[in-house]
Amino acid sequence: MGRKWNNIKEKKAAKDKNTSRIYAKFGREIYVAAKQGEPDPESNQALKMVLERAKTYNVPKAIVDRAIEKAKGGSEENYDELRYEGFGPNGSMVIVDALTNNVNRTASDVRAAFGKNGGNMGVSGSVAYMFDSTAVFGVEGKTEEDVLELLLEADVDVRDIQGEEDGVIVYAEPDQFHAVQEAFRAAGVEDFTVAELTMLAQNDIELPEDAQEQFEKMIDAIEDLEDVQQVYHNVEFG
């Protein structure tokens, strides 16, 4: 699974290049999570999960507080959660998650981003079956043996534990997200390099150089869309 984690790191590094964009996306996601339940992460697990992800992206507290206060204030701004699936060059597969207050606009924008860059939208279910929803945690300063021991002590089952150059990556079932998180915290680990639910491709593919350039251009166009929150794919970056 190490190669799959490389894709996550690549995606995170790409997003970090435009902090204003990623902060805006998190602000929207935090607002939606806070509005759908209690605006308190201790009683709202969805909000708690978003805030944990926001921490790994260094989202400023002011942005977090503003989004939560907006939800507390009873804002009437509503968003729909949408998922699009599509194909890029050479059999590449893409999943796009969006939050939007204008479904027609978002669908049109996503379709155009695919079409103008050598891809095409698919029907619901055409791609998702080739991906697995996965909880992923990254920690530094621990070995695989350390992590295995603390998870066993907490009686938490995971899919895999993968050593990396700068730490350890843990892959778990989505419903084990909070159990894994609490196991780490009970062992004194408070900071994560990654802590999120993601969609991992069951099989990654490599693209020839020309197709890789076209694919990256397509992904950039999709991620630049205001309504798009997350993009997942099955391409191994080089």
From TrEMBL:
<dbReference type="InterPro" id="IPR029072">
    <property type="entry name" value="YebC-like"/>
</dbReference>
<keyword id="KW-0805">Transcription regulation</keyword>
<dbReference type="Pfam" id="PF20772">
    <property type="entry name" value="TACO1_YebC_N"/>
</dbReference>
<dbReference type="GO" id="GO:0005829">
    <property type="term" value="C:cytosol"/>
</dbReference>
<dbReference type="Pfam" id="PF01709">
    <property type="entry name" value="Transcrip_reg"/>
</dbReference>
<dbReference type="InterPro" id="IPR048300">
    <property type="entry name" value="TACO1_YebC-like_2nd/3rd_dom"/>
</dbReference>
<dbReference type="InterPro" id="IPR026564">
    <property type="entry name" value="Transcrip_reg_TACO1-like_dom3"/>
</dbReference>
<keyword id="KW-0238">DNA-binding</keyword>
<feature type="domain" description="TACO1/YebC-like N-terminal">
    <location>
        <begin position="3"/>
        <end position="74"/>
    </location>
</feature>
<dbReference type="InterPro" id="IPR002876">
    <property type="entry name" value="Transcrip_reg_TACO1-like"/>
</dbReference>
<dbReference type="InterPro" id="IPR026562">
    <property type="entry name" value="Transcrip_reg_TACO1_YeeN"/>
</dbReference>
<comment type="similarity">
    <text>Belongs to the TACO1 family. YeeN subfamily.</text>
</comment>
<dbReference type="GO" id="GO:0003677">
    <property type="term" value="F:DNA binding"/>
</dbReference>
<dbReference type="InterPro" id="IPR017856">
    <property type="entry name" value="Integrase-like_N"/>
</dbReference>
<feature type="domain" description="TACO1/YebC-like second and third">
    <location>
        <begin position="79"/>
        <end position="235"/>
    </location>
</feature>
<dbReference type="GO" id="GO:0006355">
    <property type="term" value="P:regulation of DNA-templated transcription"/>
</dbReference>
<keyword id="KW-0804">Transcription</keyword>
<protein>
    <recommendedName>
        <fullName>Probable transcriptional regulatory protein B0X71_01025</fullName>
    </recommendedName>
</protein>
<keyword id="KW-0963">Cytoplasm</keyword>
<dbReference type="InterPro" id="IPR049083">
    <property type="entry name" value="TACO1_YebC_N"/>
</dbReference>
